[in-house]
Amino acid sequence: MRCEEFRETIEETPRHEVSAALREHLGQCPACALYARDWQTVRAGLDLLAVEPEPEPMLGFAARVLRRLEESETSSLASREELLERAGRRMLYATSFLVLTLVLMLVLPTTGPVRAQAFTELFPTEPAVVAENNPIFNDDSAANPPLAPSAPAENGGKATQ
Amino acid sequence: MGSSKAEVSESDWIRRVQGGEREAFEPLLERHQKRVFSLVYHLVRRRDEVEDIAQEIFIKAFRGIRSYNFQASFGTWLSRIAVNHCYDYLRREQKTKLAYYWQIGEEGSRAIEGQAQSASEGALNLEQESEARDLAEKLLARAPAEDRTILVLKELEDHSVEEIAAILQLRPNTVKVRLHRARKRMLEDWKRWRQRR
Predict the structure, then answer these.
(1) Domain encompassing residue B16
(2) ipTM of predicted complex
(3) Would the CB atoms of A65 and B140 count as touching at under 8 Å?
């Protein structure tokens, strides 16, 4: 029998029911004999601990537990209500602030040192294309005809005077 | 209601608590309080703390009762909650407390060593009994929370390996292995202490 097997078996064996195989190993292996002796001592102590009187539930134990349950439920309900109230109050403050800001934006004049951006600055229009028939530019366009970028230079790309 | 408390089975009470009826928890409490007190006392070994811890365990059980699915017995389910709660308690305790070797008194240890032979022969006098009880208590107190839990369930609560497996949600073979390791560690601890003297 292996030592480990012996030790596992002896732990589960009642004191007076040691088999012949166990006894044989006990006689041959001093380390296991010591292990068995120590275990018997500890087990005797554990057996005594097991039978010593344990505290009994005092009268009204169940009622005390139920009262604690009731109290904890009440307090958790109260804390939930408080949480909701706090959240509602914050929501109210935030909405008020937002409304006030919007009102101020609408009421305050758009001129002065702090003024809103002009409409045209916000949405700039496309630069006006100079109409060919515009009388203001007619003379200039006649004097300086617009260059035709697509037309290839006839004189090898040299500028004409 | 026509039925008395005695006529109503445990599962009916459980279903009523699951349905939100707090008062239906009372008969469950009364039926299982002794079991919880015993388990808590054996695991924690502090008489002054047992009632508070037991109350916390029942409050936890009440809050978690909707998760109880009737697969294990209610007692096993409750023991599981108690063991987990005490395990956490022991872990917290062991973090704040150092288990010194002087916890095993000099005189006591000498007496225990002398009586080891008597123990193996099965005869202990009153003084030796007291010393053996003291030794076992101190070795349990010094054991890691895992070892202590499994040893208490087996040696003090007298549960079978199968019952321990159901409480700890382990396989029976795993329980056997862990039990052997816990016992071995306990004896090694005692041996180390003797060698240090």
Answers:
(1) 8-97
(2) 0.81
(3) no
